[in-house]
Inverse folding.
């Protein structure tokens, strides 16, 4: 496997070779990466509340 | 033939006997690994505690492999990169699952029903985990670690803990990361899990009346 092919295979799906992006909201400053992670956690939290648990309908 | 009556055994008055009786009373062996749970536990929101423990297991195993093979391995070889990344991403999962678990238990007011120590040990394990993750960033042995340590040193020195927690001292931070903080975390999380077994999983609002008005009803209502 050539070095170039290896580099392509191991490259991050998102180009990380630049300074991070940040959002500013008054006194709040947070990187876009951290904001995305927090949003994903909130989505998982809401889904865990709403999605039915397997087998739970069989029990009273 | 005469049969002698068994001599009644006096309960031990030593500290070992007292401790044994208390442990058996508070943590009955048949409730430590239950195969049944209350019916309200059949929800995805109750899964995040054990997901946190599963992620922690991966953290410990991958960290153990890194400790055996050393930084020249994890910085250079492809297998080392993989295990190094496994350690990082299992920590990411551990922290994410733990925070979702925290959100769920906060909105359930999970300290109800004499579960204050369960909540307190959970909060302490969260704090210890932050320390363990922080020292992990400090011992990456790369520019990121140097940057984080120089950013953190003034704040930590200003609160007077610089002698025992010197973020510029790689050896000390490594020992905090792989010895002291894992010991603290293991002890606190162990007590936390035992508290969950002792008091049971917190019921949803409205379902706790059964516990309060009918204490003779078994805590582990089967589903």
């Amino acid at each position: 496997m050539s070095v170039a092919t290896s580099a392509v295979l191991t490259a991050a799906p998102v180009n990380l070779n630049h300074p991070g992006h940040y959002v500013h909201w008054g006194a709040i400053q947070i990187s876009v990466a951290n904001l995305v992670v927090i949003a994903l956690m909130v989505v998982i939290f809401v889904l865990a509340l709403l999605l039915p648990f397997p087998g739970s309908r069989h029990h009273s | 033939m005469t049969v002698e009556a068994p001599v009644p055994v006096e309960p031990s008055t030593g500290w070992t006997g007292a401790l044994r009786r208390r442990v058996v009373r508070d943590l009955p062996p048949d409730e430590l690994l239950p195969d049944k749970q209350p019916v309200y536990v059949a929800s995805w929101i109750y899964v995040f505690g054990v997901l946190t423990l599963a992620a922690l297991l991966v953290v410990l195993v991958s960290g153990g492999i890194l400790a055996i093979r050393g930084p020249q391995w994890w910085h250079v070889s492809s297998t080392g990169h993989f295990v190094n990344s496994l350690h990082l991403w299992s920590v990411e999962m551990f922290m994410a699952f733990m925070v979702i678990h925290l959100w769920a238990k906060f909105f359930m007011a999970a300290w109800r029903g004499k579960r204050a120590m369960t909540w307190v040990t959970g909060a302490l394990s969260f704090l210890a985990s932050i320390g363990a993750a922080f020292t992990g960033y400090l011992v990456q042995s790369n520019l990121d670690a140097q940057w984080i340590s120089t950013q953190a040193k003034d704040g930590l020195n200003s609160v007077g803990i610089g002698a025992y927690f010197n973020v510029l001292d790689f050896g000390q931070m490594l020992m905090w990361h792989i010895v002291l903080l894992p010991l603290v975390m293991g002890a606190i999380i162990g007590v936390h899990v035992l508290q969950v077994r002792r008091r049971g999983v917190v019921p949803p609002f409205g379902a706790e009346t059964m516990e309060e008005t009918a204490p003779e009803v078994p805590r582990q209502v089967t589903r």
